Structure formats: C-alpha cells, structure tokens
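Q: Convert this sequence to structure tokens.
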Amino acid sequence: MEEVSRPLYERDRDLREEEKAIEILCRRGKLAAHKLPMRYEVDYLILQRGGMYGWAEVKVRPGVERYDTFILSCAKVMAGRRLAEVFGGRFIVVVRRTDDMMVLDALSHRPGFVAMGGRTDRGDDQDIEPVAHYWWGQMTRLDIPS
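A:
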C-alpha cells in the first residue's frame, strides 16, 4: 500500500508548548523525555534513571475545557499501546491545559467510547477519523507552577 503524503499542521509554537508540558512532567517525576521521529506516531520516549518508563503523547489545550471528554486519534492510541506492549513501559497521554496538566494511563484505561471525529476547519478529509473519547475523570490532575 502506497503511503500518501499529508500536510504537517504542527507549528513551531505548538512544538514549544508541547516541550514545556513534557519538561514539567519530567521535572516532577525525575524523568527524561526524548522527542521521537514522526514514524513512531507518538511524541516521546520517556526514560527514568536510564531505564524504560514509557511512551507519551502530548497535547496542549489552552483555555477551559468545553467538552466532557478529551479525544485522541484511535491510530495514536493503537500506536502508543503497541509500543508499550512490545517494548515495555507505560503509554501516557499528557494534556497541558491553562492552569493544570492532566495525565492518562492509556494502558490501564479504555476510552469511554469511540466515534468519528476530528477537525473540519482545515478542509482536509483525512482529519476526520475514528477518535477515542476519554472522560476527564479517567485522568490524574497535576497542578503546575504559574
């Protein structure tokens, strides 16, 4: 099957905010994060004292949450779970919000439900796909320094 090239929507600003979020998590847990190439489909490999801690997908969502759930592409969920199951460690999803950070153990928690979803504002039909909806209550809240 031929792989189709798609536009890259991640901006430098997005990457800087993502890096800030993972740095906060790493400082709290004495962890080290390493940005992964796109082919891994998740954002980071995380090590603890040189050994495996896990794999992480990081999202930044400024503002107050307007929805009861957080969505993540089913493809990302599968990729992260597969990496953790094959190579060990956890698969976590880190969501940096305005005043806090939420962390989901995506190996221990199944989504509340799956539906079709995604973005419609870019005119890219590949942005609509199966998405996993996780309840905010499934996540652990971390206060972050101002």
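The beta strands are 32-35, 44-48, 51-61, 69-73, 90-97, 100-105, 113-118, 128-135, 140-143.
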